[in-house]
Structure to design on (181 residues):
């Protein structure tokens, strides 16, 4: 892989890492504090992350990053965890859109309204389709915790490789070097 492609791959990885950790932190804050002012930001950045995820999938298909676990005992586990992370990156925002959209809360991409709120004459939110909305809500909540655990596992594995195994795994994602191919 060329140095330019490696740089783009690293940039996408770290952009996604920062975005997802921030979105999850805001989501957990909203859940435990019921701070409703954060919802529009959470939804907007969730949609932005979804767009970046779509680009990441395209980029990954176009420019695969060779795993250093190829032909090792860990290869299948690493592939499974990475695949599950990617699936979560897709399903989390989709379930959030189903949750918010079908329960009548609507969602916007910053100030651009995508699904309008559904309010009755007393200005109360009315679901468009409660069963789908409730399913999206349940899935979004459960996946949020599972996704958080996978991210912690991913970070822990990177740190283990760096500090215990003393291999190049973390260094490959941190620094530009012609030796990383």
């Amino acid at each position: 892989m060329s140095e330019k492609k490696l740089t783009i791959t690293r940039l996408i990885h770290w952009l996604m890492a920062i975005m997802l950790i921030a979105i999850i932190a805001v989501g957990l804050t909203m859940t435990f504090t019921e701070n409703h002012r954060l919802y529009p930001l959470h939804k907007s950045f969730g949609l932005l992350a979804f767009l970046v995820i779509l680009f990441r999938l395209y980029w990954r298909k176009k420019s695969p990053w060779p795993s250093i676990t190829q032909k090792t005992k860990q290869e299948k586990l690493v592939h499974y965890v990475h695949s599950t992370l990617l699936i979560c990156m897709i399903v989390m925002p989709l379930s959030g859109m189903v949750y918010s959209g079908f329960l009548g809360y609507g969602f916007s991409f910053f100030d651009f309204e995508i699904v309008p709120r559904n309010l009755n004459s007393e200005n109360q939110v009315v679901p468009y389709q409660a069963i789908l909305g409730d399913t999206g809500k349940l899935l979004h909540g459960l996946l949020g915790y599972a996704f958080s655990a996978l991210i912690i596992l991913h970070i822990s594995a990177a740190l283990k490789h760096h500090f215990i195994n003393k291999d190049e795994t973390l260094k490959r994602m941190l620094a530009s070097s012609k030796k990383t191919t």
